Amino acid sequence: MARLPTLRQLRHLVALHETGHFGRAAQAAHVTQSTLSASIKELETLLGVPLVDRTSRWVAFTPLGTATVERARRLLNEAEELVQLAKSAAGPLAGPLRLGVIPTLGPFFLPAAIARLRRRFPRLRLYLREELTERLLTRLEGGALDVALIALPYDTGGFETMALFDDRFVLACRKDHRLAKAAVVRPRELAGEPLLLLEEGHCLRGHALSACELPGRGGAAVLEATSLHTLVQMVEGGLGVTLLPEIAVRGGILRGTSLVTRPLGDPPEARTIALAWRRGTQREREFRLLGEELIAAHAPAAKGAGVAGAAGRGNGPGGARKRARTAAS
Q: Which end of the chain is less congested by CB atoms within 10 angstroms, N or C?
């Protein structure tokens, strides 16, 4: 029988591809640089072809090396799923679970969700990663994450998604702003208003522009910020108005400010929070159970807490009149 590559060798190869540097790859793999270099050299000898071109300054993968990395990722993912599948036989949601989450959701939703998961599944060990949607899906595809909490609409390609709940948009403005007098703000009423948005790369930016029926920057968006908290402070300073997800308002993002919120649209505009995982995984049943638990974690807050002036509409997936049709990044 032919000798086969070891999982250890494949991990080292993937680490080198992700870091592009032998020293950083060794650090990520928790081995010495000489050990990692020897491991990859052994793999090349075993396969009988060079996978990496080495110089004193940089590392470049050969075409075959790049193709080998992709297969190595799939093999490592399947090996990890095999272990988790065996562990799940003793009970669902036990052992490690690597969960990614977008920044406009994590701080406001995860505390309640994690508290529920710890009560109901004490053997579950959650490892969290907060990043923008594009990076989360890249990590998910590469096997660095098991599941990811994202906002739709978004082009999820070959990933499986499970819609969890709708997160409605509200307009945030100062008490002395003309729109503070409205019971409900129509998107057309934002024409000409300085609309403060998150910078490019945040899916919420695309969702907000679409909710306002603006195809791009729309001329009204004059300032950008890197976080929702910064947007809130800019509005407090009188620089304009912004759109916030309702879950962030319920999570206390306006605490300590004098800002007010008004529903956007009637029925309200919303994004859909969803759970994503790799298609074809053996853990789909477990991930769907996780989704059900996340829905249950959101339900009490959605029922018991309100946003000033919010319209009394259903908050399940698809409950809003329409979604943003496209989200850039």
A: N
